[in-house]
Every structure is written in structure tokens, then in C-alpha cells.
Design goal:
There is one protein chain. The chain is an alpha+beta fold and about 325 residues long. The protein contains 9 helices and 14 strands. The chain has helices at about 65-85, 105-120, 125-135, 195-205, 205-210, 215-225, 230-250, 260-275, 300-305; strands spanning about 1-15, 20, 25, 30-50, 55-60, 60-65, 90-95, 150, 165-170, 175-185, 280-285, 290-295, 315, 325. It binds (3R)-3-hydroxy-3-methyl-5-(phosphonooxy)pentanoic acid.
Length: about 325
């Protein structure tokens, strides 16, 4: 009753912001992302009678209580219920990218936990079922259950059975696509995205227009991906990100994730584009900027990013695969 899985994180090109159902994690809007090659979580799960309680070790640190622990135990309870088993589990999990990168470790984390957990419990889910399970741990984890360019369908049903991830195009469709995560600040997030989203729904007067214009963004990005129209994907993703931050900033209390360094990179990207160097930006609930570009422009963009003193580190990624079971266990 032991299994290990690896799952990549993802970056949203059309963001998810706001829950319709907090318990099942059903989103207010569909979203589209890219699964990121090589930025992953490896997780080993073992169910056994020898464990008196669930044990969770993340990045070599034992987590015994608190929100992170509760979420993992709740997820194991879902798996135990599906498999009709009672055994407690030991979970060892490792991310290979820094938490400060502003890349969602909960996305790769819950995708890997869902796959390792179900296999350890003797259940074999397809990717659709896996994404429905992962979704209940973290919204963005839904999308990490597919490879390449992915859409998380909002769904209509109250039970969440039609809110899952589908693949728009596999990684091989557009292998030249690149995401550069820049790290400008390593301060911890003050407010979780779960709390932030709830505040937006309650207080933001702009949220209505966010929802009203989301279909248009989803359509454009999908078309851009299928036709490999880089400008269309880039400008739509950037505009969607700016709308998200307008919504965040007009939430009460204001959710201002940008720092001076964030704006410094935004302005650099805009200036490069004026010069004809094709690059776009996207930003999640944090200060880090992700630069979107094609492989051919990577050397020049890297060279320019390295000259910006606020940029402490960069991490480059390309389209990656869906989660997989692997043989080498972490314990
Ligand atoms: O599912 P969470 O709690 O990781 O929230 C994700 C929120 C954003 O990263 C801002 C947007 C997104 O779609 O990933």
C-alpha cells in the first residue's frame, strides 16, 4: 500500500479567482494554464496499520498541525473513503523549486498527493477523475493533472462532477513556448489566496466585469494556443493578469501584491516589446513576475533580465507532462 508520484506545477494564462463552492472548490470561472516541465513535487504515500496517525513530511520538515496539515489529512480522508480503507498514512513530499518563486506548490503538491495516494490505496483513476480529486485539495491542482496547455472547466453541477481539467494541446504541440519565473522578493505572502478570493467576492465592485469578460479571454487564448499565435496568447494573458490585479486592488482591504520591483519588470517587458522583442508578463497572488516568450528570444531576454538588479534569480520552464507514477520511493 505504497506508491510514489511526480507532478508538475502550472502557471495560469487565464486566471482562476473566486470560489462558487468552498468545500468542493468549484470555481466562479474556467481557467487556462500551462503545465511547467521540471518544476515538480514528488510524493510518496504509504497506508499502513503501523501508523497511529497521519504523518506528513514536506521538504524534510515534519508538519504536525495547522492549515497545511489539516488540508493533507482531509485529502487522505477523501481517498480513504473512495477506497473504503481505514489505515493512517505516512506522506513524504518534496518540491524541487523554491517556495518564494511564486509558483503554486499546492498545484503540483495536490496533484502528486492525489496520484500517489490513490495508487497506494489500490485505486486507478483516469486523468479526469484525478483532476476532480486534486481540485478538492487546491483549485490550481486541478490543472496540474493534465500535461501541456490545459483548461479547467468550471462545470455546472453542484456536486462538482463536471468541474475538471481537459487538455487543449499536448506539450509537443508548442515546445518553443517558455515561461521565465523571476524572483524579486522572498517575503512570505501575508494573505492566503483562499482568504483573498473570499474577500474579493464579498467586496470588489469590479468582480462582475471580471466574470463578464472571462469567456472572451478563454476563447482568445484557446485560439492562440491552437493556432500557435504567440502575440494573441501573450497579449490576452497579460490583459487577463492586469484585470485580475485590478480586481485584487479594488477589494477591501486592498490586495496589493505588487512591489516596486514588480513594476520595474512590467515596465521593462513593455519597453522590450516596443523595440520588437516579443515578451509578455503574468503575475499571480504575489510580487513575482513571470515572463512569457518563445525559445528563440530566450538568450536576449535572459541577458536583459540579468541586468535588472532587482531580479535575484530566474527559473526557465517549458510545456510539461501530466503526473506520473514512479518507482523510486522517498522512504
Ligand atoms: O488554487 P490556488 O489557491 O493555488 O489559487 C490560485 C490563484 C492564482 O494563482 C492567482 C490564479 C490561478 O489560476 O492559478
Amino acid at each position: 500500500m505504497k506508491a510514489t508520484a511526480i507532478a508538475n506545477t502550472n502557471i495560469a494564462l487565464v486566471k482562476y479567482w473566486g470560489k462558487e463552492d468552498k468545500k468542493l472548490i468549484l470555481p466562479q470561472n474556467s481557467s487556462i494554464s500551462l503545465t511547467l516541465d521540471g518544476l515538480n513535487t514528488v510524493t510518496t504515500v504509504e497506508f499502513s496499520k503501523k501508523y497511529k496517525r497521519d504523518i506528513f513530511i514536506l521538504n524534510n520538515r515534519k508538519i504536525k498541525e495547522g492549515d497545511e496539515f489539516e488540508k493533507v489529512v482531509r485529502h487522505l480522508d477523501l481517498i480513504r473513503k473512495m477506497a473504503q480503507i481505514k489505515e493512517k498514512a505516512k506522506i513524504v513530499s518534496k518540491n524541487n523549486f523554491p517556495t518564494a518563486a511564486g509558483l503554486a506548490s499546492s498545484a503540483s503538491g495536490f496533484a502528486a498527493l492525489s496520484l500517489a495516494g490513490t495508487r497506494a490505496a489500490g485505486i486507478d483513476l483516469d486523468l479526469k477523475e484525478l483532476s476532480i480529486l486534486a481540485r478538492q485539495g487546491s483549485g490550481s491542482a486541478t490543472r496540474s493533472c493534465q500535461g501541456g496547455f490545459v483548461k479547467w472547466l468550471k462545470g455546472e453541477k453542484g456536486d462538482g462532477s463536471d468541474s475538471y481539467a481537459i487538455q487543449i494541446a499536448p506539450p509537443e504541440h508548442w515546445p518553443e513556448f517558455r515561461i521565465i519565473a523571476t524572483i524579486v522578493s522572498t517575503r512570505a505572502k501575508k494573505i492566503s489566496s483562499r482568504v483573498a478570493m473570499a474577500l474579493t467576492l464579498k467586496t470588489c465592485p469590479m468582480y462582475k466585469s471580471w466574470l463578464e469578460t472571462i469567456e472572451e479571454d478563454l476563447e482568445k487564448i484557446k485560439k492562440g494556443i491552437l493556432e500557435k499565435d504567440f502575440s494573441l496568447v501573450g497579449k490576452t494573458a497579460e490583459f487577463n493578469c492586469l484585470k485580475l490585479h485590478a480586481v485584487m486592488m479594488t477589494t477591501k482591504p486592498a490586495l496589493i501584491y505588487w512591489r516596486p520591483e514588480t513594476l520595474r519588470i512590467i515596465q521593462a517587458v513593455l519597453a522590450w516589446r516596443e523595440e520588437g522583442l516579443k515578451s509578455y508578463f503574468t503575475i499571480d497572488a504575489g510580487p513575482q513576475v513571470k515572463v512569457i516568450c518563445l525559445e528563440k528570444d530566450l538568450p536576449e531576454i535572459k541577458r536583459r533580465l540579468k541586468k535588472i538588479k532587482e531580479v535575484k534569480k530566474i527559473i526557465i520552464s517549458k510545456p510539461g507532462n501530466e503526473p506520473k507514477v514512479i518507482e523510486s520511493h522517498l522512504f
